[in-house]
Write a structure and sequence with these properties.
11 strands; mainly beta; 1 helix; four-stranded antiparallel β-sheet; seven-stranded mixed β-sheet; globular; single chain
Length: 124
């Protein structure tokens, strides 16, 4: 059973930066695709960014140019560097992983595994 553990959340003022980490464990082969989602109070969960083992990445329009997703496959770790943070970035951020290549899991939010989440709060 794969486990995902996030860290790096916290409180920051608008314009600041945070770096989230997600460590995967318990896998035989490092998941092909990993990503970050977020959910703000009273809002639906949304996909933030995705990174596949082959190096491809994708971002939500709302974070393009501000957030950078990366992964260290040798360590089974996913990162999200968040710069120029805005109050609207305030949310619980979740790491997710899908074992195999799939065009659907990120859009449908149906990964094989979810992390427990880490809170990010941006004050104005």
């Amino acid at each position: 059973q794969v486990q995902l553990v996030e860290s790096g959340g916290g409180s920051v003022q608008a314009g600041g930066s945070l770096r989230l980490s997600c460590v995967a464990s318990g896998y035989t082969y490092v998941p092909f695709s990993m990503g970050w989602f977020r959910q703000a109070p009273g809002k639906e969960r949304e996909g933030v960014a995705r990174a596949d083992r082959d190096g491809s990445t994708s971002y939500a329009d709302s974070v393009k140019g501000r957030f950078t997703i990366s992964r260290d496959n040798a360590k089974g770790t996913l990162y999200l560097q968040m710069n120029s943070l805005k109050p609207e970035d305030t949310a619980m951020y979740y790491c997710a992983a899908n074992q195999y290549r799939s065009d659907d899991w990120f859009l449908r939010q149906t990964p094989n595994w979810w992390g427990q989440g880490t809170q990010v709060t941006v004050s104005s």
